[in-house]
Specification:
CATH architecture of the largest domain: 2-Layer Sandwich
Radius of gyration: 39 Å
CATH superfamily of the largest domain: Bira Bifunctional Protein, Domain 2
Distance between the termini: 78 Å
Number of domains: 6
Largest sheet: 7 strands, mixed
Helix content: 10-25%
Strand order of the largest sheet: 28-31-32-36-35-34-33
Number of strands: 40
CATH class of the largest domain: Alpha Beta
Strand content: 25-35%
CATH topology of the largest domain: BirA Bifunctional Protein, domain 2
Shape: elongated
């Protein structure tokens, strides 16, 4: 939201510089994201001064040039060569001296330098309109009035004043500050000033009955006001109005529309002007649309309306989607001579749903859907009518219609001094608390020594509880005025062990040290990514079709991130995410904490001595095993993955529950997310993981003094036999002395029978009490061979 510094002066007397005011605005909750100088004319006529031509003689070497001397108020006259046909003695002119930068209406800026023109010295330039951005005329130099003060600034002569524009990051709850009046109210509270009253004395009332208004849906349009204005002439707005709108980034359209935009940003009240001659039956009907009713909006798009949409119609057809967008047919054009001007308060929920339903976001809907001020509709009409009369010659031709049968009441609730002081953490005097609250436009009643009741005006839509009043007091009093205590009291940590956050940090540190980066993805996703539509948690009022359900896994969040990076030539990724899944199971909403790993692209950054190899299944397995080992999780049972995530993969089970599944993301899922493969993904059940390690006990074991022994076996096996089966057989065969089993070679080829493969296994044996003998070692190996042959049909090669 853009706010003009000069515009604010219409409401309060400010004696702070724009920079000082910027800090104050941020302190009171209206964060200033940027501050820019706004000039109605590029360059702001800086450096240009008023001069008087003292002498004017023909240039000796050029028929169309004159040599002049000009008085600019300095100790000496300036010698300036000029080619303008209207230059003459005694003329007051605009002078650009040496060093001044000029900004022409068309073309690049240029700097004035001392030079020789056809042999004559020129120490500046006498300026025409187009040479300094003041206009488009090139007929000659600008002629100033005879009483212009020599040496004075040209910007002062033309009453030009630089403006400063604040870009404010307005939070959604601060609908009351979505205008210059709203911002001025906060500043007035901070400085303890009074906001200037609206000057409406020039409004010329009329008792003639105008356009008939009928409101059929009072719930959606609690207040509807309007007035007729005739004899208008639609055309370009005056310069002051165009400059006001230009300063805040609003494009000028015509004088009538510009006035409505001005009031929108001035008072925060959206207005809409209808061409009165196009209102069938001279009747306004505020009603719900008919289901499927067609309506062409101002952008020339024909839209199909819903029965939930509120429209402003005439006796025959819709003319406007209430609070959102006007219609093409009823809008103001150059041929318009009379208008019906609307000022209303619409139900924020109704406008918000309609705006999202039709994907229309306008300045009006932005304010209506957050909540406007129902008490200012008539005042806004009067101010707009005064301005329309000024800029278009129009005059009010009817009485003001104001339908407001059920006035919106202020929010009323009690506030205690003790609670305000307790929450803020400082004993702010009671008088100061009351002073701040009253300065914000909040009325007090039923005052006692303990507190009071407040009546909060309807436009402060975020102040509905006592804690909201506390926040109002704090932001105006100033966060910086709350001193930090020298001592901070803290209680002992009674959280469960292990602490989930500590475990998360341990795992994150491990992954980051191995080149991973953390990502944080939206919990909202689209229904194309659902794992089980029957248990999906769907949004009742989604922001868009791409964000209409809660995610059921972390897979597609990761794939979307991979796809986003791939499209930006950043496809080598190693990322992890800590997030939740959401499901509706037996009528109950269930959240589950998950942890995911995702890898794609090359294993390492491309360089002269790298292999540029692509990540594979064993890279994701290595990362998963690293986490399992870091957290000392034992008793894992390994199974082939069964599900729709992967083309192939594994699941690690702890008891009957899956602790983690990982593998190569299926081509179907890659295509669904528009991602180039291969991509490898792992998803942990984090809640189960924390529960598992909670039962682990950390024990210390002395390093054995006796050496370990390694023996290798090459086994001929059926293709269906897995290493995990062999590992379990080995551990069951020798529980005490067998310390480790690894596979170090796999062979398949024409030298082996069909359907067979060869595994080379290593076995590490160690006795922690004595040195193993060859006899003991051979006996163990023999037992292993026998059990391998018996249980999986293996034979030693």
């Amino acid at each position: 939201m853009r706010i003009s510094y000069n515009w604010l002066k219409n409401f309060i007397d400010i004696n702070k510089t724009p920079e000082e005011l910027s800090l104050i605005l941020t302190d009171i909750g209206l964060e200033v994201e940027s501050l820019e100088v706004e000039q109605s004319i590029p360059g702001g006529l800086e450096g240009l001064v008023v001069g008087e031509v003292i002498t004017c003689e023909q240039h000796p070497n050029a028929d169309k040039l004159k040599v002049t001397t000009v008085n600019v108020g300095g100790p000496e006259l300036l010698h300036i060569v000029c080619g303008a046909p209207n230059v003459r003695v005694g003329l007051k002119v605009i002078v650009a001296q040496v060093g001044t930068t000029c900004y022409p209406t068309n073309g690049e800026s240029f700097k004035i330098t001392k030079s020789k023109i056809r042999g004559e010295v020129s120490e500046g330039m006498l300026c025409g309109e187009d040479e300094i951005g003041l206009g488009t005329s090139h007929a000659g130099i600008v002629e100033l009035s005879a009483d212009a003060e020599i040496g004075s600034l040209v910007k002062t002569y033309f009453n030009m004043e630089d403006d400063f524009c604040y870009e404010i990051g307005l939070t959604p709850n601060r609908a009351d500050a979505a205008s210059h009046l709203g911002v001025a109210r906060d500043l007035a509270a901070y400085f303890r000033l009074n906001v200037k009253a609206l000057e409406l004395g020039a409004f010329a009332s009329n008792s003639t009955k105008g356009t008939t208004v009928q409101v059929d849906s009072l719930e959606d349009a609690p207040r509807y006001s309007g007035v007729n204005i005739k004899n208008i002439k639609v055309g370009e707005s005056p310069e002051w109005l165009r400059n006001k709108l230009k300063a805040i980034g609003v494009r000028s359209i015509n004088n009538i529309v510009d006035v409505t935009n001005y009031i929108l940003h001035d008072l925060g009240q959206p207005l809409h002007a209808f061409d009165q001659d196009k209102i069938a039956g001279n009747q306004i009907v505020v009603r719900k649309a008919k289901e499927g009713e067609l309506f062409k909006t101002l952008d020339a798009v024909e839209r199909k309306l819903s029965a939930e949409d509120l429209v402003i119609a005439d006796a025959e057809k819709p003319m406007c989607i209430a609070g959102v967008f006007g219609g093409e047919y009823s809008g103001v054009t150059e041929a318009t001579t009379s208008i019906f001007l609307e000022s209303a308060y619409f139900n924020p929920v109704s406008v918000r749903k309609t705006s999202k339903r039709h994907a229309l976001k306008t300045d009006s809907s932005f304010r209506f859907e957050r909540g406007t001020n129902p008490d200012i509709t008539v005042e806004a009409l009067k101010k707009a009518a005064i301005l329309i009369a000024e800029v278009s010659g129009g005059e009010v031709s009817s009485e003001i219609v104001d339908i407001y049968p059920n006035p919106i009441k202020p929010f009323e609730f009690p506030v205690s001094y003790r609670n305000v002081q307790r929450v803020i953490g400082k004993d702010i005097p009671a008088d100061t608390i009351k002073d701040i609250i009253v300065s914000l436009g909040i009325e007090l009643k039923n005052e006692t020594e303990e507190g009071f009741d407040v009546l909060v005006p309807p436009y402060k839509v975020d102040v509905i509880r006592e804690i909201d009043v506390v926040e109002e007091v704090l932001r105006i009093y100033g966060y910086n005025n709350i001193e930090l205590k020298t001592q901070i009291k803290a209680s002992l940590n009674t959280s469960e062990k292990p602490d989930k956050e500590v475990v998360l940090n341990q795992v994150a540190d491990l992954l980051i040290s191995n080149g991973y980066r953390e990502i944080l993805c939206n919990s909202l996703t689209k229904d194309d990514y659902l794992e089980n539509p029957e248990t999906a948690v769907k949004l009742l009022n989604p922001l868009s079709s791409d964000l209409d359900v809660m995610r059921q896994n972390l897979l597609f969040s990761a794939l979307v991130a991979v796809g986003y990076n791939q499209k930006r030539k950043n496809g080598d990724l190693k990322v992890f995410e800590y997030g939740r899944s959401y499901n509706l199971l037996d009528g109950t909403y269930v959240e589950k904490q998950l942890f995911s790993l995702t890898i794609a692209g090359k294993k390492e950054q491309e360089q002269w001595n790298s292999t540029n190899s692509i990540v594979n299944f064993y890279d994701i397995k290595s990362a998963v095993d690293g986490i399992i080992n870091r957290l000392k999780v034992d008793g894992i049972r390994i199974e082939d993955y069964e599900g729709s995530y992967f083309d192939y993969g594994l699941s690690y089970r702890k008891g009957e529950k899956v602790l983690v599944s990982f593998g190569a993301v299926s081509k179907t899922n890659l295509k669904k997310a528009d991602v180039d493969g291969p991509v490898f993904f792992a998803q942990f059940d984090w809640d189960l993981l924390v529960k598992v390690i909670k039962k682990n006990k950390i024990t210390y074991k002395e390093v054995s003094k006796f050496p370990s022994v390694r023996r290798d076996l090459a086994l001929l096996l059926d293709d269906s036999i897995t290493f995990e089966q062999l590992r379990l057989i080995a551990n069951k065969t020798e529980r005490k002395l067998l310390k480790d089993v690894q596979i170090f070679d796999v062979y398949k080829g024409d030298k082996l029978p069909e359907g067979k493969k060869s595994y080379a296994l290593s076995f590490v044996l160690q006795d922690e009490e004595k040195t193993l003998t060859d006899k003991q070692i051979d006996a163990i190996i023999q037992k292993l061979i026998i059990n391998f042959e018996k249980e999986v049909g293996a034979s030693v090669r």
